[in-house]
């Protein structure tokens, strides 16, 4: 960690002052307004008491667990579809300062050290402002109570109001939406429920690391044992894993992120249990070998419900039963059906950016062959053993790619679910999709490289007949001659030639061969 004093001073005393430079750069006048939509845990939440006093309850790194239990623990109300705080004198609000950006910028503004865990959209906001976007005119945020359902009518009405206010503030321009993680589920819910409104006010939607078909391993373990958002020594300052579990078990949004039962998985996610075989009376047989039980998406809900049947929450000394909530399961199933009917308007461009090259939890296993489970409730006290697939570490690639929409482009970036928001390759793609500045005819978003044609007079065709690509390099020059021609003849033509090649992700230090054709290009990684 490091203290960025320059950045902190700029936050305290912004320079230049707003209004110091009234000149509006020509290139920024035509920018469509951008709306940032965070994912689960990506919005600041305030607890507001009956006297109107506000206290930041999420995120905070000091006295976090105590205040979390006191103010944020909640129970689901099936009549309204909302989860409500147990503290009757407290309401939960999302601050709307800085046109909604404050709530999804630095999640704990009191932290003076750079902590990537709480610097949510901060780097992206800075990049967008460097490109000419202005808060309140062309740059906005949409924080929301992420405990609630993604299709909650209250969320949908606030999202409507946000799009209308952006439209007016920007002089009648449609919005470009950038969503991260579960924010993509909220946006897709809005698209499904308010298609015509979406068409009227949205120009494009860029989804980043969205769990369109759920996050099987991650969410299953969240519902059974909880989750730690902060790792290492910092977790001692943050919310305890079991406290997080007691909140999530009553959150509709979490149930909406379970693996989709209707999706055709290449290999359906499973809950796996090493169990002791039972005797006729139903008791475990200590002398029999352990067996591995497997449950797919249509079966493991029964197992999870059995494991959580006796789960309780201790709230100020009161013991409250909190089993797996069947009413929320019904609500979440309806949400999935609504998401399936979402259809993108022909006037709206959709881009799907996914994270790849990270081991991502998929199958979830409790117990082991040597230490099988005695009782199903033992699961709640065990650490999961995952089987992994490709993805961003949280969302499997197969899920994030299956958006079900008519996408302009689906593209992967090797990156972590959260860290992808700070990746310069993401910035390069966003700049291209948002059409910021003068277009670069040689930029290829698929590879995130710039291809610069070179005249053949600069090419030494005598000495370069074959080439290869080393993945870890930052700059390569590809010099290829056309078969059957000598360098002298080609140099006199003054033509440019194009190299075609195949490449892909590989192990560190691996070499990919390049297929030749008549070409000459300079290939360099673009820096943003």
TrEMBL record:
<protein>
    <submittedName>
        <fullName>Uncharacterized protein</fullName>
    </submittedName>
</protein>
<dbReference type="GO" id="GO:0006629">
    <property type="term" value="P:lipid metabolic process"/>
</dbReference>
<dbReference type="InterPro" id="IPR029058">
    <property type="entry name" value="AB_hydrolase_fold"/>
</dbReference>
<dbReference type="GO" id="GO:0008374">
    <property type="term" value="F:O-acyltransferase activity"/>
</dbReference>
<dbReference type="InterPro" id="IPR003386">
    <property type="entry name" value="LACT/PDAT_acylTrfase"/>
</dbReference>
<dbReference type="Pfam" id="PF02450">
    <property type="entry name" value="LCAT"/>
</dbReference>
């Amino acid at each position: 960690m490091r203290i960025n004093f320059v950045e902190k001073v700029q936050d305290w005393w912004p320079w230049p002052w707003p209004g110091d430079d009234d000149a509006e750069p020509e290139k920024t006048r035509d920018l469509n307004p951008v709306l940032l939509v965070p994912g689960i845990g990506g919005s600041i939440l305030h607890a507001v008491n009956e006297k109107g006093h506000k206290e930041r309850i999420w995120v905070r790194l000091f006295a976090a667990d105590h205040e979390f239990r006191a103010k944020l623990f909640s129970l689901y109300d099936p009549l309204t579809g909302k989860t409500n705080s147990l503290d009757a004198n407290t309401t939960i609000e999302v601050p709307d300062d800085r046109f909604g950006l404050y709530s999804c910028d630095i999640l704990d503004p009191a932290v003076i050290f750079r902590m990537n865990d709480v610097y949510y959209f901060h780097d992206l906001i800075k990049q967008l402002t460097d490109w000419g976007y202005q808060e309140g005119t062309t740059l906005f945020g949409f924080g929301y109570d992420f405990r609630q359902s993604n299709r909650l009518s209250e969320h949908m009405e606030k999202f409507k109001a946000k799009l209308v206010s952006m439209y007016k503030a920007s002089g009648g321009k449609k919005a470009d939406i950038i969503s991260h993680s579960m924010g993509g589920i909220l946006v897709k819910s809005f698209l499904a429920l308010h298609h015509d409104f979406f068409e009227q006010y949205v120009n494009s939607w860029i989804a980043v690391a969205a769990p369109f078909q759920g996050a099987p391993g991650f969410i299953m373990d969240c519902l059974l044992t909880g989750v730690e958002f902060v790792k290492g020594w910092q977790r001692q300052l943050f919310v305890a894993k079991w406290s997080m579990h007691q909140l999530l078990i009553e959150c509709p949004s979490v149930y909406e992120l379970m693996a989709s039962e209707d999706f055709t998985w290449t290999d359906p996610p499973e809950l796996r249990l090493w169990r002791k075989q039972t005797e006729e009376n139903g008791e475990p047989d200590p002398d029999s070998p352990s067996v591995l039980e497997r449950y797919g998406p249509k079966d493991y809900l029964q197992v999870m419900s059995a494991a959580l049947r006796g789960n309780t929450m201790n709230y100020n000394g009161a013991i409250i039963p909190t089993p797996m909530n069947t009413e929320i399961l019904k609500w979440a199933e309806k949400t999935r059906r609504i998401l399936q009917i979402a259809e993108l308007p022909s006037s709206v461009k959709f881009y799907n950016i996914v994270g790849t090259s990270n081991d991502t939890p998929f199958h979830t296993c409790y117990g082991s062959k040597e230490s099988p489970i005695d009782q199903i409730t033992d699961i709640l006290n065990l650490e999961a053993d995952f089987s992994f697939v490709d993805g961003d570490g949280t969302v499997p690639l197969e899920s994030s790619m299956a958006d079900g929409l008519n996408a302009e482009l689906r593209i992967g970036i090797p990156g972590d679910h959260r860290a992808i928001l700070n990746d310069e390759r993401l910035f390069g793609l966003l700049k291209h999709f948002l059409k910021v500045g003068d277009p670069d005819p040689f930029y290829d978003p698929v590879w995130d490289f710039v291809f610069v044609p070179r005249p053949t007079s600069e090419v030494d065709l005598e000495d370069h007949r074959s080439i290869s690509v080393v993945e870890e390099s930052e700059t390569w020059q590809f010099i290829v001659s056309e078969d059957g021609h000598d360098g002298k003849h080609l140099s006199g033509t003054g033509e440019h030639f194009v190299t075609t090649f195949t490449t892909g992700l590989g192990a560190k230090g691996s070499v990919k061969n390049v297929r030749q054709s008549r070409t000459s290009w300079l290939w360099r990684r673009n820096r943003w």
